[in-house]
From TrEMBL:
<feature type="transmembrane region" description="Helical">
    <location>
        <begin position="88"/>
        <end position="108"/>
    </location>
</feature>
<feature type="transmembrane region" description="Helical">
    <location>
        <begin position="56"/>
        <end position="76"/>
    </location>
</feature>
<feature type="transmembrane region" description="Helical">
    <location>
        <begin position="143"/>
        <end position="166"/>
    </location>
</feature>
<dbReference type="GO" id="GO:0005886">
    <property type="term" value="C:plasma membrane"/>
</dbReference>
<dbReference type="InterPro" id="IPR037294">
    <property type="entry name" value="ABC_BtuC-like"/>
</dbReference>
<comment type="similarity">
    <text>Belongs to the binding-protein-dependent transport system permease family. FecCD subfamily.</text>
</comment>
<keyword id="KW-0812">Transmembrane</keyword>
<keyword id="KW-0813">Transport</keyword>
<feature type="transmembrane region" description="Helical">
    <location>
        <begin position="237"/>
        <end position="261"/>
    </location>
</feature>
<feature type="transmembrane region" description="Helical">
    <location>
        <begin position="114"/>
        <end position="131"/>
    </location>
</feature>
<dbReference type="GO" id="GO:0033214">
    <property type="term" value="P:siderophore-iron import into cell"/>
</dbReference>
<dbReference type="Pfam" id="PF01032">
    <property type="entry name" value="FecCD"/>
</dbReference>
<feature type="transmembrane region" description="Helical">
    <location>
        <begin position="273"/>
        <end position="297"/>
    </location>
</feature>
<keyword id="KW-0472">Membrane</keyword>
<dbReference type="GO" id="GO:0022857">
    <property type="term" value="F:transmembrane transporter activity"/>
</dbReference>
<keyword id="KW-1133">Transmembrane helix</keyword>
<dbReference type="InterPro" id="IPR000522">
    <property type="entry name" value="ABC_transptr_permease_BtuC"/>
</dbReference>
Length: 328
């Protein structure tokens, strides 16, 4: 208990340091003193504008969405007992993106709020569809789920590409967040997705103890008094809400859930009551740092956070696939 509490405190410190680095680093480097003055005084200097209007909003969004996607990936890994599970790999993010594109095409997506609702529907349909398809074909084995999810993600991605390439107006609305980025996101974005994120995170916290029981097997969990169907439903809704918030705010960001889940599990073991908060902190730190690295690599421009995470996440995915035991 004491070791895990200390580790959680260290993760929180990492998030705080990453937050400070995000405010200070970029195409123009600022000292911590200049950052503090900008946050406290906001006198209107160039540094004040950079910190308060540009870097602070995107960093807040990165914390919120990183936590959402980190927890979503951990929940998926727990419910599927699959170390490869992650919203991007399992097609959940692709389903959310396709729903948003369809909403853009028919004109129902006009704000971040309506984008979240479309993304939520797409995320839930994709999650349910992948599990049903895998159960019919392979008995929902870990590898079967991964392969089914990859196939569904490819199909949904192809459908999304076909729609945006054939419709210039939809393409204009889609390309802003298609790569996965926190660039240009203001505090209004965080405010609009916050209710969905909070409900998703609360449901994930409620679902954590149920996941610990489900890890013993559905029959054992039912014998201990757990309603397996209710636990699965709560987890499904939480995954959908968290993924929808992430996709609506920042676009499809792959591998973040995989990275956060594995780092948290390495430190805290398999107890989901510890894994859920640890994954939230790990996901937040990872997205902030990916954004900072992208800014530093891009020079006058920037490399999007989704690209940076892809460069890290793709090798991690290969490593996990090559391990002998891919089930949790």
């Amino acid at each position: 208990m004491a070791r895990r509490t200390v580790a959680l405190a260290v993760l929180l410190l990492v998030v705080v340091v990453a937050f400070a680095a995000s405010l200070a680093l970029g195409s123009r480097w600022l000292g911590l003193g200049a950052v503090a003055r900008a946050l406290v005084d906001g006198g209107g200097s160039d540094a004040d504008v950079i910190v308060r209007s540009l870097r602070l909003p995107r960093t807040v969004v990165a914390v919120l969405i990183g936590a959402c996607l980190g927890v979503a990936g951990t929940l998926m890994q727990g419910h599927t007992r699959n170390a490869l599970a992650e919203p991007g790999i399992f097609g959940v993010s692709s389903g959310a993106a396709l729903a948003v594109v369809l909403g853009l095409q028919v004109g129902v997506v006009e704000s971040v709020g309506s984008t979240v609702w479309c993304a939520l529907i797409g995320a839930l349909v994709a999650t349910f569809g992948v599990q049903r398809l895998a159960a019919r074909g392979t008995g929902a084995s870990p590898v079967g789920l991964a392969l089914t999810g990859a196939a569904v993600a490819a199909l949904l991605g192809a459908m999304t590409s076909a729609i945006v390439l054939l419709d210039a107006d939809t393409l204009d609305g889609y390309r802003f967040w298609a790569v996965g980025s926190v660039s240009g996101r203001g505090l209004d974005v965080a405010v609009q997705v916050l209710p969905f994120a909070v409900v998703g995170l609360v449901l994930a916290a409620i679902n954590a103890r149920d996941l610990d029981l489900l890890a013993l097997g559905d029959d054992v969990a039912a014998g201990l008094g757990l309603s397996v169907r209710r636990a699965r439903f709560v987890g499904l809704v939480a995954i959908g809400l968290l993924t929808a918030a992430g996709v609506a705010a920042c676009g499809p960001i792959g591998f973040l859930g995989l990275l956060a889940g594995h780092v948290a599990r390495r430190i805290f073991g398999s107890r989901n009551t510890w894994l859920i908060p640890a994954a939230a902190l790990t996901g937040a730190a990872a997205l902030i740092l990916a954004d900072v690295v992208g800014r530093l690599l891009g020079g006058a421009g920037e490399v999007q956070a989704g690209v940076v995470l892809g460069l890290v996440g793709a090798p991690l995915f290969v490593v996990v696939v090559r391990r002998r035991a891919v089930a949790l």
